[in-house]
Structure formats: C-alpha cells, structure tokens
Amino acid sequence: MTFLRTTAIALALAAPGLAMAADPELTVFDWAGFEEPVIFQGYIDKHGDSPTFAFYGDDDEAFQKLSSGFRADVAHPCSQMVSKYRDAGLIEPWDPARIPAVADIDPQFLNSEVFKDAEGLWYIPTDFGATAIAYNTENVPAEDVSTLQVFVNPAYQGRTSLPDSADDVWALAYLATGVTDWTEVTDEQFQAAADWLRQAHQNVAAYWADPAEQSQLMASGAVDVAWSWNDAIPLLQAENYPIGFQRQAKEGSSTFFCGFVNLKNGPGNEDKAYDFINAWLAPEAAKGLLDTIGYGHTNTKALATVGDDPRVTQNLGHIDAPVLAQTPNNPEQRERQLAEFEKIKAGF
C-alpha cells in the first residue's frame, strides 16, 4: 500500500484544512495524496522545497471553504466544479503565454467554454481517471459484474460500497438507467436515476470518502463490490487482494478529470504558482502521477512516456462500452443532484 498517501489522507480527514507547511510563498489547496514531490519535482528543483499544502476531502468541501474566506493560491477541482468557481468570482484566468505545455494538453480536456473563452484560460486540466466496478474476484462471479445492476442485486445486500461523492454516484445512476450524457438530463431521467439510487442504497454497507478507505473496506472483507476510482486498484493489488476492475459492464463506466484554477487574490507569489503548474505539466511528472495516484496525465507528451504501462492501458485506456464523461454540467442540475443524494443517504 502507498503508506505516504494513505497517511496524508487520514490526516486530512482527521483535521480538514490541515496544512503541510513548506514554501510559505505558495499555498496549494488539494486532495490529500497529491503532495507527493515526484509529481512536481521541477518546482522543488527550482525553489528547494515543496509548496505549502492544505487538504480537503471532496470538491464541495473545498468550494465551501474557499467561499467562506479560506485563502490559497491555487486549487485542484475536478472539471464539473469550474463553473461554480467562475460564477462565485473566486478565480482569475491563467496566462497561457507563461505555461508553454498548455499547447500539449489533449484538446478534449479543454473542449468547453467553461474552461477557455474570450475572457481567458480559466482551467488547466492535469490528470484524469476512471470510475468503474471494483470487485472481489474470489467471491463475485464475472457475470454478476457484467452489469451495473449488481449494485441493486439482492444477493449483495450489505456487501456494496459507493463513493460519498454526488458526481460519481449520479454518474453510476445515470449509466444504470440508460443515460450516457449528463449535460442534458430530463426530469424523467433524473427521477429514474434517483429511484435507482434509492434501490442501490439498500445494498450499501458504507459510503467511502477516499480510495484508502474504500480499499480498507474491501481488504477487511466488509464489502465485495464497490463503485471505485481506478487509484484504489493498485492499493488493493499491493495487498494481494483478489481485485477486479470492470470498466466494460454493458451499461458502461465513467471518466473524470481534474486540474488547477488560479485563485483570485492569493496570498502567495504568483510567479511560483506558474512554476508549480509548469512542473506539473512536465513530461517527467506522468510517471510520478501514475506511481503515486494511478491517474493519467493530460499532457499528451507526458502520457506517452507511460503509455505502455498496464495501469494506463487496462485502467484508463479505450473500452468497448458506453462512457459517461464527468464534464461540466448544468450547475443547477448538479445542486439538485447533490441535495437528492443527501436525502438518499439519510434514508429518504
């Protein structure tokens, strides 16, 4: 298991907003685990130390904290959150002239006016992953995970786990009810997905907050099936757990990507913010990202350096099944999903 990452996650969950102090002139507000130096080694080479990191457990927590006055220089939201940051006036555009590797970012990750428009470049996509079915290959027959209906299968009552993330659970529910594009969801499709999630809730033993928690639930034998980010798979493989990762259920699986925003009126050194992003986008960062987090790199030149790695080809590569991409969706619809998810978790 990646103990450094697991320890950082545990600390972050125990004390939300906990900072790991280093370079006082740059504060990065991030998911626990992304403070690993191999991901941004170029910054350390130039400045002699890592930035100061403050951690959060999920995207909505990060947004609420920043909206309430917490100050940092850059933050690392996933793509569907960027419109909220823009609407709230929390961010300012990046200067692409100061980030040469922007030209090497796979265009699919910038294909939204939320990220790039006439006003500027609002978002630097950096990393991507997949969400699919993780399962115990010794206890769960392959045919059971050939469909997302495994999450409502009575045989697995009390044996499943879902992420405590509205975006991921709604991606699952939409896929399970035949929707592969969440940017245009009808009221009927929303209700069908909500009804399905209420069924799935009956089987849930626990909602996991991070990959370390999910891997511990599975390794302990508490659950056999989970809707999982791909970064939990290496954690379980390292523990010799019989883990499978089914991305090609007949209804499909999901993908997501995250990146950095430039927070308005950050307290630190703006030049160092650009040094940090340039280090993140360097080709050599891809292996560090894959080794520590398990994610792919948005920089095509960087990804090419690890393109033959099975963790990329098997966990992140092309699949012959539907894919729901967690791209920006209607902010009002996302808030509706978030509120409904809270009701479902509470048993309503």
TrEMBL record:
Give the classification, highest ranks.
Bacteria, Pseudomonadati, Pseudomonadota, Alphaproteobacteria, Rhodobacterales
Q: Which InterPro entries match?
A: SBP
Which species is this UniProt entry from? Answer: Paracoccus chinensis
Q: Which UniProt keywords apply?
A: Signal
Protein name in UniProt? Spermidine/putrescine transport system substrate-binding protein
Q: Which PANTHER family match?
A: SPERMIDINE/PUTRESCINE-BINDING PERIPLASMIC PROTEIN (PTHR30222), SPERMIDINE_PUTRESCINE-BINDING PERIPLASMIC PROTEIN (PTHR30222:SF17)
Signal sequence region: 1-21
